[in-house]
Write a structure and sequence with these properties.
The chain has 203 residues and is an alpha/beta fold. The protein has nine helices and seven strands, in the order ααααβαββαβααβαββ. The protein is elongated, with a radius of gyration of 21 Å.
């Protein structure tokens, strides 16, 4: 190959490598920024995407599920176990207090401190498995929570799924794209049921 052509080819290759590196760097910065600013974003947009201080009735309306009935089913499915529930992205929701009953333990998680510190864990959706351990919860309720704010759908869904006990369920609603959530679950090999505003995961 003549020298001028070789030079042009090398220049094009260098430009392509720089462009690819720039894309990867920007993507990494974006992911880091999304995760790093999740708490600040949640504070600034408090109440604008969904209601911050939802009652049980409001959560059930958003999810399309009666959770008292769901707990009854879990008690029959796991008769000798204490039912463990996680209200992920709880905000100021009163769901945990309203669902409280004997032989049921409800934990709450969010990046922003809850008004009630009882059973509250300040933890990102991306660190659920690390914080709580795998196979911990019979039921996870995520109502426009970490999946909306975390910046990485697949990782958020993987963490929620990892913390579910076998035969457990996770109900997730999000302001974000429901079809993308379903694709992430499919890519992860998770059994799921898609809904217009979210997804149900089955383990």
């Amino acid at each position: 190959m003549p020298a001028p052509k070789r030079r042009r080819l090398k220049i094009r290759q260098r430009q392509k490598r720089r462009k690819d590196y720039s894309k990867k760097r920007q993507s990494a910065i974006s992911d880091k920024t999304n995760l790093g600013n999740a708490e600040d974003t949640a504070r600034r947009f408090r109440g604008k995407l969904g209601k911050w201080d939802r009652t049980l009735a409001e959560v059930e309306k958003d999810q399309g599920i009666k959770f008292q009935e769901e707990i009854g089913k879990l008690k029959k499915r796991f008769p000798r176990q204490k039912i463990e529930i996680l209200d992920e992205g709880c905000g100021l929701s009163t769901l945990a207090d309203e669902l409280e009953q004997p032989n049921v333990h409800i934990s709450k998680s969010d990046l922003v401190h809850s008004v009630s510190p009882k059973k509250f864990h300040k933890v990102s959706v991306h660190d659920l498995a690390k914080h709580f351990g795998k196979n911990r919860f019979h039921l996870i309720i995520s109502t426009r929570g970490g999946v909306d704010w975390g910046g990485d759908y697949k990782n958020a869904i993987a963490n929620i799924y990892a913390t579910l006990k076998p035969r457990g369920k996770a109900f997730i609603t999000a302001t974000a794209n429901s079809e993308l959530m379903q694709k992430c679950a499919q890519d992860l090999g998770i059994t799921y049921k898609g809904r217009w505003n979210g997804i149900i995961l089955f383990k």
